[in-house]
Amino acid sequence: MIRTLEELLDATAARFPDRIYIEYGAKKITYCQAAAVSRKFAQVLRDRGVTAGDRVALWLPNCPEFVFAFFAVLRAGAVAVPVNTLLLREEARYIVEDAGAKVMVCSAGKAQEAKNILSRVPSLEWIAVSPGSETGNGVFSFWELVRAAEELQEGPPAEPLRLAEIVYTSGTTGRPKGACLTHRNLLANVNDCAQVIRANKRDVFICLLPLFHSFASTVCMLLPCAAGAKTVILRSVRPFKRVVRTILRKRVTVFIGVPSLYGILSEMRLPFARRILAALLNPVRVCISGAAALPPQVTRRFEKKFRRPLLQGYGLTEASPVVSLNPLKGRRVPESVGVSLPSVRVRIEDPRGNECAPGEVGELVVSGPNVMQGYFHLDEATARTLRNGWLYTGDLAKKDTLGFLYIMGRAKEMINVRGLNVYPREIEEVLYRCPGVHEAAVVGVMHRRRGEVPVAFVAAEAHVEERRLMRHLRESIASYKVPLRIIKKPVLPKNPTGKIVKSELQREASKLFTRGENAPSL
């Protein structure tokens, strides 16, 4: 029985030593090679003072070194702390300092910023740079350290409840919080995902999403390892044509993406003959969308064009992260985020803690072996989020009689219009049904006379007029749900995983009203 993630890599390397685990450009790295490099860097960590429970920050883009360092940290008995590569120096410093990281592994592009952090964070003792040649003053070359090291022979005790990583949430409602995930949490989620999508050793995954994000690290790094499959790592999704070429050339079978990627693909103009050819030559057997809401219209257009199942799921960092997924076989519901994974329980609760009837909206709560231990050094936040064995997600949802989940938005995003609850997701789905609308987001803002009101933002083609959208809304939903304004923008702001950042839109809408621009678009 596999109890820890390093055991997972070792078990797969023993079964398939020469099978390719990672492809990165021209590099092809076998399971045996990945295990060996991770053992060497684990020995480096041990030799340089890293002990059980110490935190090691990984400030790396998508690259093989992320995988090597991640498993090496676990072998040393330490805890990995992935850091968002899009963060500015002071944002990264906060995470490194809050986690009390002892070591940082970073890319050459982050070396100068990492040195600055090294000089200012007392817990941080040294950094390893990859690729890197400049050394001294606590800075070392990752590969020079690895080449000079022996392989670690004896790792820490195989304790499933040992902390594996601390993944910091996006912090859209304040400072980021570190979700503490154990080996058991991550293994349980990986095993569930493997069962649901029927992952096998012949699969080829593509890793487009950033590995510092829990969705990508679980589904694009750990899941292939559990199946003995290959993962093709791309550093960037641009240019997008390169992604399509990679899928065909590398014979990718499992495509992991975010809604914006599927939106682009669904709208690509292909002549009928090329569309049929693409469908016949397409090696992909399943597509999975996560990290943000997937408009059902995108799902339908994508599946019609490429003749492959597109499965929308739901998750959150605190759940390692996958909670639900539309079934690969049988009934799928494009408007839904699917059914809960085999070992995960979900329920919808009203404000009094009672379970809601099918179709009623309430807070989604989750229980299972994938649920985090808590937030790092934040006892009060942990107590609010973890109660009586349940994870309170803060997401509003409903469940139908067949167990399919429907996300209605964040509880904090619910808009109270004259005492009536308005769910942004409901309005957004109506907007997505309008031809030419690519992105839609609804936020609530305070109006000096009307109280809280909904305001919609859309990214749409030039011919789409706000007036027509407003008319469509009035014909589709109750009058109190119709936004006071519809604001058209070229694109909507997003975080690194493609989720629309509503806090930015809310600030923009509030500023408009502050300046008195409160007349509705008619």
Which descriptors would you attach to this protein?
nine-stranded mixed beta sheet, 34% helix, disordered C terminus, 16 helices, Rossmann fold, 522 residues, globular, alpha/beta, five-stranded parallel beta sheet, GMP Synthetase, Chain A, domain 3
Write a structural description.
- The longest helix has 17 residues, at about 30-45.
- This protein is about 35% helix and about 25% strand.
- The protein has a nine-stranded mixed β-sheet. Strands 4-3-5-6-7 form a five-stranded parallel β-sheet, sandwiched between helices.
- It is built from 16 helices and 27 strands.
- It is an alpha/beta fold.
- The protein is globular, with a radius of gyration of 23 Å.
- The protein folds into three domains: about 5-180, Rossmann fold (3-Layer(aba) Sandwich); about 185-225 and about 240-355 and about 390-410, Rossmann fold (3-Layer(aba) Sandwich); about 415-515, 2-Layer Sandwich (GMP Synthetase, Chain A, domain 3), CATH 3.30.300.30.
Number of strands: 27
Q: What would the average pLDDT be, to the nearest integer? A: 91
Roughly what fraction of the amino acids lie in strands? 25-35%
> Which homologous superfamily in CATH is the superfamily of the largest domain?
ANL, N-terminal domain
Regarding CATH, which class of the largest domain?
Alpha Beta
| CATH architectural category of the largest domain | 3-Layer(aba) Sandwich
CATH fold title of the largest domain: Rossmann fold
Sum up the overall morphology in one term. globular
Domain count: 3
| Class per helix and strand makeup | alpha/beta
